[in-house]
């Protein structure tokens, strides 16, 4: 097993942790907001100490609006809140990374991010995001599906499946058959790949049927006796 290099914990969890920050002369710091589920960089804004204190207190992102010169609770007007997952300072303590769960679009234009459409692979579920255990991978994949269902980006394979029931069910059947074939042939290389493809198409079908991942996991947990 390849061991990952040890990394410094730069998370800011308490008010006291904010004392380590090196605010600029104007009392502000840039904050990069990143969606934990999709990995998309959503926006860059600025925050003073009061905004960061409010963020830690409420669990939702607060910034400082330089144009209005006032505290800015992201989503207070639009409803597009950013629910804080974790806040991290960089190695120089003068820039912050906020990992968030974004509700709705992040940009005032109505787009998902302030940087427009970002490069992405969106097809059969052999996804590099699946670098972790099942407990973290499935929710991350589900959040990506929810993002596709919300944004409906042009050219997205997931969106094609969500909008076409015949294609969705056809692919689900095909992936099931391909996994059965790999199992019958005891093809150790193909079995994991086919299993992942089937899992992806199954989750898309669940999303289209308005069945949540939590509902499925609850039933699964009830049967673990």
Give your account of this protein's structure.
- With 225 residues, the protein is of the alpha+beta class.
- The protein has 6 helices and 6 strands; from the N terminus they run ββαββββααααα.
- It folds into 2 domains: 16-102, Roll (Ubiquitin-like (UB roll)), CATH 3.10.20; 134-222, Helix Hairpins (Orthogonal Bundle).
- The radius of gyration is 21 Å and the shape is elongated.
Overall tally of structural domains: 2
CATH architecture level-2 label of the largest domain: Orthogonal Bundle
Total DSSP E strands: 6
Radius of gyration: 21 Å
Order of helices and strands: EEHEEEEHHHHH
Write a concise synopsis of the structure shown.
37% of the residues lie in helices and 16% in strands.
Write the layout of secondary structure elements.
Elements: E1 29-35, E2 41-47, H1 49-58, E3 62-65, E4 70-73, E5 82-89, E6 96-102, H2 134-151, H3 157-163, H4 165-184, H5 190-208, H6 213-222
Parallel strand pairs: 1-6
Antiparallel strand pairs: 1-2, 3-4, 5-6
Helix pairs in contact: 2-5, 3-5, 4-5
